[in-house]
């Protein structure tokens, strides 16, 4: 099962939330990039992601139907984009750092390729949520667990475009941090966090903790604004070390706005970096001998390892990403990707964002710290799998991608940026 851990330094106790009972409540649909959590608490309730643009959540305070059913709110969102001034969205500067030879550990320097057949990898993850993120859920670990597992399910649905090897990440530990124990976070004030310094701190400060050592990759989800360690640039939305799965620097950090699932693509992008993928069009990773790189795939094609978002490619990985992940998984020192190290029953919530949040809530939260609350415009964007959010004090309109699972027409939902039939996401 996944463990939802309250992290304390020094570690005196670990509070684990059993996931076996909740496992049956998670459902996902691969064709539509949907993942939802179903509960029967005080009536049937659905919360999660319905495709790339739609979210759904219950409205407990609303009046019930004549049959006593809980009312639900269906709403749209869009992931952050760049290169289009009309969208008024800052650049997603997702960075994957290629470690130079003098920064590599002895283990990395001595690596040589291994010849072994690989058909599937199941990266085991420890996911940290920073205090700002956790506080938005009132430190309710059940709510955090459900939200993060839905997010990772949607990340996995994007990895279905990588077929050789098959990739399915397993969030083994979910660690909810508070202000007292997020000691590895390199903060600048209360709203900003440095990228590289934070990642460098993780193995230094967490190396003796089981939940860090036991998994293949550790990812920090932050509700703060990530800024560059080197120049303070705030355009960074995620950061990772390329090809470091199973090694000391098996770490990444990515932004996520609570209750929006707008960071699904960011998380998938950074996870692909750690699994060995460079940006499309970039050279090989210098300290992995024989690494294929991504010269053969154009940045302008707009796949997930590019910042360009022009069509449904932005919800998929290129062929170059598949080649790089396959090569890295065969490389000496990355054997952990082929093994199930934490042999516990896995808990997953196979929901889509549309079953966890509403489009009204998405607009309220998605730019709260930059522009304040926005208001959802239900009259536009459904057929195009877009979400329109209006600023309250101006005529400015923000356009976002519709989250996975939200309706785009009768009997069809948005999934990976397309309006299509509802997919089956149960893994």
UniProtKB/TrEMBL annotation:
Zn(2+) binds at residues 269, 273, 279. GO terms for molecular function: metal ion binding; metalloendopeptidase activity. GO terms for biological process: membrane protein ectodomain proteolysis. Coiled coil: none annotated. Residues 121-341 form the Peptidase M12B domain. InterPro entries: MetalloPept_cat_dom_sf, Peptidase_M12B. This is Putative tick metalloprotease 64. It comes from Amblyomma cajennense.
């Amino acid at each position: 099962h996944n463990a939802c851990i309250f992290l304390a330094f020094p570690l005196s106790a670990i509070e684990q939330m059993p996931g076996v009972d909740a496992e049956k409540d998670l459902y996902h649909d691969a064709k539509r990039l949907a993942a939802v959590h179903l509960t029967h608490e005080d009536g049937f309730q659905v919360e999660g992601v319905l495709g790339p643009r739609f979210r759904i959540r219950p409205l407990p305070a609303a009046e019930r139907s004549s049959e006593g059913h809980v009312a639900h709110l269906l709403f749209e969102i869009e992931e952050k984009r760049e290169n289009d001034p009309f969208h008024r969205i800052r650049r997603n500067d997702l960075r994957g750092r290629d470690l130079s030879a003098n920064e590599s550990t002895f283990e990395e320097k001595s690596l040589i390729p291994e010849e072994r057949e690989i058909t599937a990898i199941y990266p085991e993850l420890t996911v940290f949520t920073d205090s700002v993120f956790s506080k938005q859920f009132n430190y309710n670990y059940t709510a955090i667990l459900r939200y993060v597992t839905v997010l990772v399910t949607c990340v996995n649905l994007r990895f279905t475009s990588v077929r050789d090897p098959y990739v399915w990440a397993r969030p083994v530990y979910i660690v909810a941090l508070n202000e007292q124990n997020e000691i590895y976070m390199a903060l600048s004030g209360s709203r900003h966090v440095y990228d590289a310094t934070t990642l460098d701190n993780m193995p230094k400060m967490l190396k003796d903790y089981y939940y860090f050592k036991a998994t293949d990759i550790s990812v920090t989800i932050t509700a703060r604004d990530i800024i560059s360690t080197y120049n303070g640039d705030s355009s960074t939305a995620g950061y990772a070390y390329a090809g470091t799965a199973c090694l000391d620097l098996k770490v990444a950090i990515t932004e996520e706005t609570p209750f929006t699932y707008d960071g699904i693509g960011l998380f998938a992008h950074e996870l692909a970096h750690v699994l060995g993928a460079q940006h499309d069009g970039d050279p090989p990773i210098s300290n992995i001998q024989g690494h294929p790189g991504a010269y053969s795939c154009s940045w302008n094609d707009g796949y997930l390892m590019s910042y360009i978002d022009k069509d449904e490619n932005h919800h998929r990985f290129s062929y170059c990403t598949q080649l790089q992940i396959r090569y890295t998984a065969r490389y000496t020192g990355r054997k952990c990707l082929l093994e199930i190290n934490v042999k516990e029953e896995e808990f997953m919530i196979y929901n889509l964002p549309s079953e966890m949040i509403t489009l009204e809530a998405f607009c309220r939260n998605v730019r709260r710290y930059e522009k304040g609350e926005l208001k959802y415009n239900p009259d536009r964007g459904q057929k195009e799998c877009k979400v329109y959010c209006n600023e309250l004090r101006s005529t400015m309109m923000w356009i976002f991608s519709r989250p996975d699972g939200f309706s785009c027409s009768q009997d069809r939902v948005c999934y990976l940026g397309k309006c299509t039939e509802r997919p089956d996401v149960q893994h």
